[in-house]
Each structure stands twice: as C-alpha cells, then as structure tokens.
Design goal:
The complex is a heterodimer of chains A (87) and B (571). Chain A is mainly alpha-helical. Chain A has a single domain, classed as Orthogonal Bundle (Non-ribosomal Peptide Synthetase Peptidyl Carrier Protein, Chain A). Helix content of chain A is 57%, strand content 0%. The two termini of chain B are 44 Å apart. Chain B is built from 26 helices and no strands. Chain B is globular. Chain B has a domain of 269 residues. The relative contact order of chain B is 0.10. The chains are: A mainly alpha (87), B mainly alpha (571). Chains A and B meet through helix 3 of A and helix 20, helix 21 and helix 24 of B.
C-alpha cells in the first residue's frame, strides 16, 4: 500500500471520528496537541489501524513520536506493513 | 491534550530560545507568593499589619467559613507528616519562602543547571520542613533505585556509598547524634559500596535476576504494605515507617511510570543521578506531599515538557492557576455553606458530609432522593475546591519553574461523559492507570474482540489498578501500615466496579455514537443536552462515592440501599 493512500485513509478517519470544525487537518497537524480530546482517541485510532491495515501494534508503539501527526503515523503503518510483507 | 503520551523530545536549542528573562514575570511571581504568605501564615501578625480577617472587616466584608480562629485563612494547603514546627502556618511560610528561592534560582541560573537547581532547592526546603530524616530517607531510597535501574552509569561506585550513608541517618537520626555517628555512617556507606560492587552488580548481570530486582524496587511500596499487614498479624502492632521512607513511598506511582519509560527505552542509559533525581525532587510536590502524587509523571513527561515553550508564557499560565487556587482555597467552604443553607431554606436536607448521611440512614432516618443526590454532588464540589485548590497551586508551581504540566481538575464540570471526566478530573493519575494497567491489558488480551478488550482494559485500570495500586496503598500510607487500612479500602470495591462499568459504557457509546461535527458546549439548540449530560456524568460520579465515604457502622447492603435511594428506588 502506498504511503499516500495510508495518509488519505487516516485523514478521513480523523476527520470523521474526531471532527474539528473550523480547523484544517494536514499531514503535519499535531494530533496530540490539536486534534485528540482524550486518550480514548488513541485507543480508537489503534483499533482503526489494526482493523483497516491489519498491523500489530504493541504498547511501546503508543508514544508521542508515533502519534504526533498523520505523517509520523502513516510512516509507522508503512514500516509495519513492510515488515509483514518481508516476513 | 498537551501532555497526552508524555509529549515529544525537545532540543537544547529550543529550550535555550525559551529561556529569556522578563523582570515583570519575576515580580508577578513574588507578588503572588506575598499574597499567599499574607493569607495563609502569621506573617502579617509578626509584621504588625492587619490580619486578613481584620482587613476584610475594615472593608465591610463579613463572610463566614473563610477565616479561622487566628484571623487568617485556614487552608487545605499544608505540609504533612512533620512536627518540627508547631503550626501549619509556619510550615506554609517556609514553603512559600522556599518556593520563592527555588523560582529565582531556576529562573536565572543557566539552562544546564536549571533542573539540578530544582533538586537542590527541594532538598533545602525538605531539609527545613522534615529535617535530616526526610532528606536522608529520600536520598537513600532514590540512590538505591537509581543504582538498580542504571548500573552502567558513571560514578556508580561513588553513588553506591549513598544508600548506606543516608540509610544510617534515615532511622532515628537524633538518637544517633554522637561522636561516633559520623564514623559509623561513613562505615555504613563503605559497606553499601562493597555490597553493591560484589553482590548487587553480580546479580544484575543475570537478566532474569535483574528483572526481578527491578520489579521489587519499583513495587517496594506495595510490597511493604503487604508485608506490614502480615507482620501486624504476627506481632499485633502497626508497623511505623521511617519518615524518609514514607516520603519516598509517595513517589511510587511516579516511580512506576518511570519504570514504564525505562522499559520502553525512553530513558538514556547513561542518565546521571542528578537528572534522575530531577524527575522526583521538585518543589511542586512539597505542599500536600500526599496529594496529586502523580503530577509530573515519569521521565519522558518531565524531560519533554521542560522549557518546551517560552518560560514567561509558562509563568503566566502558572499564575493563572495560582489565581484559581486562591479562589478555591479562600471561597470554597463559603460557597458550599451557602449552597447547603439555600437548599435547607427550600426544605431539602443536605448533609455537610456523606458519612453523616450514611450514619443517619443506618440509624433509621428517612433520607430522600434529593438529599442523597445533593449531598453527594456538594461533596464532589468540596473535593474540587479543597483538592483542586491544592493541585492548582502545585501544577502552577511546576509551570512557574518551567515545566509545561497539564492541569488537574481541568474544568471537570464540562465533562459530558465519564471518559472525559476521568481525564479532566485527575489527568496525571488517569495517565498512570492507563499506562500501567489499561495499555498492557489492551495490547495483550482479546485482540479481535473489541468490546471485551475495552471492557477488560478499563476494569484493569479503573477498578483493579485504581483500588489496589492507587487507593489501598495510599490509604495505608495515610493511616498506618496495618490490616485494617487494607480491609477498609477493599470494602470500597463497589465504587471501583461502578466507576469501571460507567467508563466502559461511555467508551462503548463513544465508539458507536453517530459522529457529528458539533462539539460539546457549542452555543446552539443542543446545548441543553450538554447541560443534562454534564449533570448526569457528575451526579453518577458523585453518587458512587457513597461506597467510599460510609459511616463505620454501615454495611455494604446499607450503602447499596442508600445508592438506590439516590436513583429514586426506595426499599
């Protein structure tokens, strides 16, 4: 899966699941500062990533670096998918 | 939420850019501290100035439930566990003066020394307030933890001297003050170096042994609680903890978070002892040592949030919290008393405490639903004023010292569901429970079964972790290491179960509700639903506290009957 497609799907998910009227969501928007309301947003996103992309997420991956933006999150998904393909 | 997941690493360059002085900010902080000193200590009396109550009355303001017998303001902001000073007011004066010193030092000292300066200031304040016992116990315990978690650090053998040396001074130091005491403490330090070098380090070389030792050190507080209860059974007497050890144990939830950061590889292997100490020893924790103990969380949170934005902006945000804190501390009881009086005038009995209501209920008094609902709600207001007043002061102090720390009690009355309330009410404690219990369960069990997975993880955090690792251990530190404290906590289990079930139900609702671009509290035709949702959320949270604040003679069945009375179901 191309990274642009991952980004697009993530953007749709965030806009639909955590609507933020008046604010525009870009690849670099800080999700933790400006988009999520609480930690259930992280849980919800995790469920989406597992279901949509079939990736296996571990507790240590739940950190501020991975979840910083659509850019970092899609890069993480892409790497996970690459690992799955290689194995 | 700024501090969600602990924030992202911050560069030295950015911190340097954020470290610009502004004399106005310095004066503002000192002015605020003078207000605190005026209101909550005897300083005005010593300086022959009008006391707060005299000033209020000279302005024509006669308010009840604000001033105490000595004509200043009694406060839930106090320094616990110490008897060096005869009055809380004097301890508070030391605290406020110490805070002023710590602020000036951290504000003006060069960046590379700032966090160390906070450790230094904290140790001085703790030394004055708690004496040698407090400082020694903390340094003994923390140096031991550091040596176990970071055995590759430089100067480790020098640091290994500290547990023995300070351990000697931790137990009854004033009894030991003799000519040989210094020699004996040096000897104890030497012995601890030998034990560490030839015993502990060798054990730590075995990965499985190292893992066990680390867990024992991190969980030392809970282990002590359980051992203490067992010993009481054998020796029929409560176990008294040394003061410094008790102070260290109040760090244990943050130590737990530190350990999670450690396991996640977020802590540099070569971390220095001073940097380690800067996670735990800050002036922001000294007031009400045992309140809001998770503020500051673990390593990543403190490292990533230090000077991550302009320090003067942080000072302003800290002062705003101090302003709210002053409002809560000064006016909290007055607002509550007037509310109780108002409902009394309307013919609705409202109790000052839930325990009193529980006691009357057990004695056979007829208690109406309105009484149950209002008493619990006003009790929730009491905690918000008392606890909120203190933790806003603490978080404000963290911010004044340069840390962008998320607030506790972040407008909890705006929560329209329990997930939001849990986050707003006690953010740092909630983060502790989520990182220590929710995530480990969520990422390990029932993958593929979304609802079961969420339910299990929530109950692990809000029910199990909250009860055992949160309330039970804290109750023991409050009331003494004995079985009775443990049993009292365990008997409160319905509160934890109902909290867990409520949060789980909220999570399911959030997962499945129809998504709308509307945000809560938008001023439109749906705002009435927001008000109703917020009331239901707060009322439910308040009501389940019936199981925590019970009269001693009330049985579990009595508490359930009272709870159901609140829901309009009478037996």
């Amino acid at each position: 899966m191309q990274i642009t497609e991952i980004k697009s799907q993530l953007k749709n998910f965030f806009e639909e699941e955590f609507p933020n009227p008046g604010a525009s969501l870009t690849d670099d928007t800080n999700l933790l500062d400006d988009w999520f309301v609480d930690s259930f947003g992280i849980v919800n996103t995790t469920l989406f990533l597992e279901e949509k992309f079939g990736v296996e997420i571990s507790r240590a991956d739940i950190n501020a670096i991975t979840f910083r933006s659509i850019e970092t999150l899609s890069q993480y998904v892409a790497n996970q998918l690459k690992d799955i393909d290689e194995s | 939420m700024t501090g969600l997941l602990g924030g992202t690493p911050i560069s030295k360059k950015t911190q340097q850019e954020n470290d610009r002085h502004n004399p106005v900010m310095v004066l503002a902080v000192l002015a605020f501290l003078l207000v605190y000193i005026y209101l909550f200590t005897y300083a005005s009396k010593s300086l022959e100035l009008p006391m707060p109550q005299d000033l209020s009355e000279s302005l024509g303001l006669y308010v009840d439930h604000v001033f105490d017998d000595d004509r200043n303001i009694d406060s839930s902001l106090y320094v616990p566990f110490t008897w060096i000073f005869s009055k809380n007011d004097d301890e508070r004066l030391v605290l406020f003066l110490g805070v002023g010193f710590a602020f000036l030092l951290v504000y003006f000292i060069p960046l590379e020394h700032k966090q160390r300066s906070l450790v230094f200031s904290s140790l001085i304040i703790i030394g004055i307030l708690y004496g040698m016992e407090g400082v020694s116990g903390l340094l003994c315990a923390h140096s031991l933890v550091f040596l176990i978690l970071h055995p590759v650090s430089s100067f480790r053998l020098w640091i290994a001297f500290l547990p023995g040396f300070f351990g000697f001074w931790t137990f009854d130091p004033y009894m030991l003050l003799g000519s040989n005491a210094l020699v004996q403490s040096l000897l104890a330090g030497g012995i601890s170096v030998l034990i560490y070098r030839y015993g502990v380090l060798r054990l730590l070389a075995f990965p499985s042994a190292a893992k066990v030792i680390r867990v024992v050190v991190v969980q030392s507080a809970l282990i002590t609680v359980l051992i203490g209860a067992l010993l009481e059974g054998w020796f029929t007497g409560p176990w008294k903890l040394a003061l410094g050890v008790l102070l260290f144990f109040w760090h244990w939830e943050r130590l737990f978070l530190y350990h999670i950061d450690y396991q996640d590889g977020k802590i540099p292997e070569t971390i220095s002892f001073m940097t380690y100490l800067s996670v735990f020893l800050t002036p922001g924790q000294i007031a009400n040592w045992n309140w809001g103990v998770t503020i500051g969380q673990g390593y990543a949170y403190t490292a990533n949030n230090f000077l991550c934005e302009d320090k003067n902006k942080l000072v302003v945000s800290g002062l705003k919290l101090w302003m709210v804190s002053l409002g809560y501390l000064v006016l909290g009881d007055w607002i509550r008393a007037n509310l109780v009086r108002f409902f009394d005038d309307q013919g609705i009995l409202v109790y000052w405490r839930i325990e009193n209501m529980s006691e009357d209920f057990v004695m056979g008094s007829t208690i109406g639903s309105a009484t149950v609902l209002l008493t619990t709600l006003i009790a929730l207001m009491k905690w918000t004023f008392a606890w909120g007043g203190v933790v806003h002061f603490k978080v404000g102090l963290w911010r004044v010292c340069g840390y962008k720390v998320d607030p506790y009690f972040n407008f909890p009355w705006l929560s329209t569901n329990l997930v939001s309330l849990w986050s707003r009410f006690t953010f740092h404690y909630r983060e502790f429970l989520v990182r220590a219990f929710y995530y480990p369960v969520f990422f390990k069990f029932f993958k593929g079964h979304t609802h079961l997975r969420i339910f299990t993880a929530t109950m692990a955090a809000a029910c199990f972790g909250n009860l055992i690792w949160g309330h039970m251990t804290e109750a023991v530190f409050y009331s003494g290491v004995n079985r009775n404290s443990i049993f009292i906590s365990l008997n409160q289990w319905p509160y934890f179960v109902l909290l867990g079930l409520g949060i789980t139900a909220s999570e399911f609702w959030l997962l499945h509700k129809k998504k709308s671009p509307r945000r809560p509290w938008t001023p439109d035709k749906y705002i009435g639903w927001d008000v109703l949702s917020a009331y239901v959320t707060l009322q439910y949270f308040a009501l389940i506290h019936i199981f925590v604040y019970t009269a001693p003679e009330a049985t579990l069945a009595d508490s359930f009957r009272l709870f159901l009375t609140g829901l309009g179901i009478h037996f």
